[in-house]
Amino acid sequence: MHEVDDTVQADKEILPGIRKNVLVLGLVSLFNDISSEMLYPLVPIFLTAVLGAPVAIVGLIEGIAEATASLTKAVSGWLSDRFDRRRPLVALGYGLSAIAKPLLGASTGWPMVMGLRFGDRLGKGIRTAARDALIADSAEEKYRGRAFGFHRALDSVGAVAGPLLALVFLGVLGDNLRLVFFLAFIPAVMGLLLLLLVRERRRVRPSGAAPALNLRLGMFDRRFQLFILAIGVFSLGNSSDAFLILRARDLFGESTFLAVLAYAFYNVVYSLASTPAGILSDRIDRRWVLGGGLVIFALVYTGFAIDVHPIATWVLFAVYGLYIAMTDGVGKALCVDLVPADLRGTALGSYATIVGILTFPASFAGGLLWSYISPSATFAFGAIMALLAAALLAFLPLSARQAQKS
After folding, report:
1. How far, in Å, CA of 284 to CA of 262, rounded?
2. How far is CA 291 from each of CA 56, 188, 234, 330, rounded to the nearest angstrom?
3. Residue 208's CB: how many other CB atoms inside 10 A?
4. The model's pTM
5. If you average pLDDT over residues 239-256, what whole number do you get?
6. Three-state SS for 84?
7. Spatial distance between the Cα atoms of 276 and 115, rounded to a whole number of angstroms
8. Which of the residues 122, 213, 264, 390 has the least number of beta carbons within 10 Å of its own beta carbon?
9. What domains can you pick out in the chain, each with its CATH number?
10. Does residue 214 sit in helix, strand or coil?
11. pLDDT band at residue 382, thresholds of 50, 70 and 90?
12. How far is Cα 104 from Cα 288, in angstroms, rounded to an integer?
């Protein structure tokens, strides 16, 4: 018998296996990603070409922003489990990220960019676990992978539109990066307004005092702990995508236009593959979908470790889209599979926090390897860690439900 939450019962099904809240939250992510991805491929170029920061500083900024902000994800997830509604945390997180966007355009030095990147990622930290738990609440268990995959598909449509809009604006504005940062505020506000359409039934909390904040992995069983170990190993080698953009710019002969276009192309593949990958994970063992994505990551990073032809760079970005489609939503669905319903927010927050915290050493080390050894060293290290993580996932014990699918 499949679990059906109160929010599922109160939510209308719009598409097969997709309810209204999942659709609306996907549209919110779409507009927010249009805003974020207008800027993301431009930030490392803005830092190095406009503000004169070295590549090591790019890694430092991305690492600190992601890791420090990610400390809020577990707390936010825990709070969303304790409160009777998750939407206020989601709205607060998206609001903080929206405010940070135009202020980036006024930055005069890399320390200011670092502070604003932290504010933007702090907003992501506040909203992510609560939003993902709300998606899980709004989907029947048999359609969980489909729901997360659908959400990631809409999210990545925004990740395609954002860089393309940035290229259009750069062409019209004469490569004025600062004005693009200001324009990115508009879709961010549109996403915030869409949150008003989310309907969430007040959840009845268990009787008695609410459990104290407990972020120790010991509160979860061994299956979840092994899952987190595998994801942690991978995250240590998964440095910021800023390095992919800088590497692509080098391979394209210092062309910012082609580097941003390749990044948009990767998101096209990600968008098209996310829902099928989620549906596949509903039908077979999610471990193999996730592990396959990690192997693909290793192959792509191996490709970027060598001086490939510009045409091969396009192929690598396309295949990289398959990796993220097979790991992002599927990883969250597997995370939810491994914990009871009343710990969903806490588990998703802990998962996101660990990934985010490890982004700091991964990105900082990536920058150091790039600056003091070679760009190839950054990508070779990431490939090795991804293969180790895929091997660890193979030892993850199956639940009774997962065993039935295998």
Report:
1. 32
2. 30, 33, 11, 10
3. 6
4. 0.67
5. 82
6. coil
7. 38
8. 213
9. 14-198+220-405 (1.20.1250.20)
10. coil
11. very high
12. 40
